[in-house]
Design goal:
mainly alpha; binds zinc ion; about 5% strand; two-stranded antiparallel sheet; about 675 residues; 27 helices
Length: about 675
């Protein structure tokens, strides 16, 4: 294919669509490489000009100039990574492999630019004499910290090694994610009608639709996407098929051949440790946590340990109950990991007279979207109206977001259904971030999920967990939408990863507020609200199976801290490390890590959560305590509490140190008690 000339490359034209959207229909994969080359060169020239400025460094000619630079690069890069995550193909994957080392090189060239760092360091030294307002002071401190942490103050030889490490890590991270996607694409369980014993209607319909998407009409496909896989494990009476599916699921990235991720991980872990050492830290975990709210691996570990012992005890009680159930049915086998979800579902049905198939018709995707919107209206006065704007895929939908006074807040895009062109998981991302430096720029925020797509004409139904995921990601979306800062670097979710899960996990609480459930959990056929007795039973199961869930999660967080805590990880055998570490932790044999290392995308696909998977638990301490602030007023929508929440958390980006921000909202730092209570780990009561 011939490179597109700059003049007719729509990526390089002005994006004049509403909300600065590109003309998606005109965008072709082959335009990205030339576009990246052009915008990287332009950004490079801007950076070089700032560094070479003859005038003495000032906040304006250095920090503000940096904040104004790289706008075209930002645009192209945001768009590219939205597509690479949510609607990729071979051509986009090829571009991704090509540009990820280029982007790393570009970032190194900026952060290791000595002349530029000299200006920032000079300003930082004189910071108290610069008459900066608090946001400007925070911005300068963030720039200085970022440059130092990237190696700006190191000798030239060390810097060159760092640049090479960063470039290699970028390529490996891309390869890791593509390998997982390849294994997920190639491992669907293709079934006939006769293989579906135990599956409720919604799971059959979803499997039929998934087979159709894969060109096998009339068949049923169970894919390795979490919602497809988990509902099969929960309902299928076929132990042989559950085992087959579960094995494929937990072996993603560990199948030998071209998509095996173990060598990729070993190299990434070694490179990260080397980088940390060059920067003066004992391990990658020490380096990573130094700029987090937790500050040290020991602090993160203390929290995890507190939870781990209690969680294992609870999981052991749960295991015994499931084993009793197998015996009562006349089964003569020990509970295996591929049995847990199936028997837990049965036990839930027996103990609470509640089964997922009874609940699911009440959780329609569209009603749950409305519920998330209505919660935002009651808390923050936001309104959402469908927007007719061009998008990148027919399944993606957009809403115009306004505040109570009618002011435009931004655009929200929801892309909810699983498809084979989408990476697994659920995430929030953006095409444009809020800021006030280039005028009053409103954000364009996306939620990408992987809910099972229904067959044509059927309503899209969610599990209660899916609905919680929807609220979680929408909480992140609000963190982006409500952002109210001047400078782009501090915008929205640009906070430490152990703080960034507070807005998302906190939002999950409102799904369980009776007002919201009563109004929006309506039966998909009859439109009837969920009966109060069913709501009561559903909420009574909140702490059910939490031993399992907590073990599944906490083991991941501990293994993450352990592998990234290695000082000398050269020559690591990844499978063996994982096995021995779990043995050391006394991992229950009937539970497998929620994400095993060979497909642990949080850690290795990019690395946003490397040595930071504990963040979810850390943030949960905050969210449990934060929701209690509403409960204490007796009103889940208390206006004053909501105002403080908006001022210090959802609207505040990275304006303050996270601990200060939390104290601003709550008046104090949180304790772990609310979290233990929420997970049913506060006492030894089983169930
Ligand atoms: Zn999250």
């Amino acid at each position: 294919m011939s490179p597109t000339a700059a003049s007719d490359n729509p990526l390089l034209a002005d994006w004049t669509g509403e909300f600065g959207l590109p003309r998606f229909a005109a965008v072709k994969p082959e335009q990205f490489r030339p576009a990246f080359d052009a915008v990287l060169a332009a950004h490079r020239a801007e950076i070089d000009a700032i560094a070479a400025d003859q005038a003495a460094p000032s906040f304006d000619n250095t920090i503000v100039a940096l904040e104004r630079s790289g706008r075209a690069f930002e645009r192209v890069s945001n768009l590219f990574f939205v597509l690479a995550g949510a609607d990729t193909n071979d051509a986009i994957e090829a571009v991704e492999r090509e540009v990820s080392p280029l982007l790393a090189r570009h970032s190194s060239a900026t952060y290791l630019n000595r002349a530029l760092f000299a200006r920032i360091a000079d300003l930082y030294q004189r910071r108290n004499a610069l008459a900066l307002n608090p946001e400007q002071a925070r911005l300068l401190e963030r720039y200085h910290t970022r440059f130092v942490r990237a190696g700006a103050a190191l000798e030239k030889a060390a810097q060159e090694r760092l640049a090479a490490i960063n470039e290699r890590l970028a390529s490996l991270g891309t390869q890791f994610g593509q390998n997982v996607l390849a294994d997920e694409k190639s491992h669907a369980l293709l079934l006939d009608e006769a293989d579906l014993a135990g599956l409720p209607d919604f799971a059959r319909a979803a499997a039929r639709a998934a087979a159709e998407e894969r060109g096998q009409p009339g068949k049923y496909a169970v894919t390795l996407a979490r919602s497809s896989c988990e509902s099969f494990l929960q309902f299928s009476a076929r132990r042989d098929l559950r085992e087959k599916l579960f094995q494929a699921w937990i072996k993603r990235g560990e199948n030998g051949g071209a998509t095996d991720n173990r060598a990729v991980i070993a190299e990434m872990v070694a490179l990260r440790a080397e980088r940390a050492k060059l920067l003066g830290f004992a391990s990658f975990a020490d380096y990573r946590l130094d700029d987090q709210m937790a500050k040290t691996p020991a602090a993160a570990r203390k929290l995890l340990d507190e939870v781990w012992t209690r969680a294992r005890a609870k999981a052991a009680a749960e295991r015994d109950a499931l084993q009793d159930m197998i015996a009562a049915e006349g089964g003569n086998f020990a509970l295996a990991p591929h049995d847990w979800r199936y028997y837990a579902e049965k036990r839930r049905k027996a103990a609470f007279d509640l089964d997922e198939a009874e609940i699911k018709p009440y959780f329609q995707l569209d009603r749950m979207i409305e519920a998330a919107f209505d919660t935002a209206r009651r808390l923050f006065g936001l309104t959402f109206a469908p927007a007719e704007v061009p998008l990148y895929h027919p399944d993606a939908r957009a809403w115009r977001v306004n505040d109570a006074s009618g002011r435009e807040v931004g655009l929200f895009i929801g892309d909810y259904f699983a498809r084979s062109s989408k990476h697994s998981g659920a995430w929030m991302t953006s095409l444009r971030d809020q800021e006030k430096l280039a005028g009053d720029v409103t954000p364009v925020i996306l939620n990408i999920c992987n809910f099972a797509k229904p067959a044509a004409g059927e309503p899209a139904l969610l599990s209660f967990d899916d609905a919680r995921t929807l609220f979680h990601e929408f909480g992140h979306a609000l963190h982006g939408l409500l952002s109210n800062v001047t400078y782009p670097l501090l915008s929205g979710t640009a906070v430490p990863s152990d703080f960034v899960e507070l807005p998302s996990q906190l939002y999950e609480h409102w799904l369980e507020v009776p007002d919201i459930l009563k109004k929006y959990a309506r039966h998909c056929r009859t439109g009837e609200p969920m009966p109060q007795a069913l709501i009561d039973r559903l909420l009574a199961t909140r702490t059910f199976n939490q031993g399992f869930a907590t073990v599944e999660y906490t083991s991941c967080a501990l293994v993450d801290l352990d592998i990234h805590g290695l000082a000398e990880p050269a020559g690591l055998d990844v499978s063996e490390f994982e096995r021995r570490d779990l043995e050391r932790l006394a991992m229950p044999a009937e539970i497998v890590m929620r994400h095993r290392l060979p497909h642990f995308q949080h850690l290795f696909s990019g690395g946003g959560y490397a040595a930071a998977y504990y963040s979810y638990m850390w943030s949960e301490v905050l969210d449990a305590d934060a929701f209690a602030a509403f409960e204490e007023t007796g009103d889940a929508f208390d206006a004053e509490t909501a105002n403080r929440l908006r001022e210090f958390i959802y609207g505040a980006g990275n304006l303050r140190d996270p601990a200060e921000a939390y104290k601003g909202f709550r008046g104090r730092l949180p304790a772990v008690d609310a979290l233990l209570k929420k997970r049913g780990l506060a006492n030894s009561a089983a169930l």
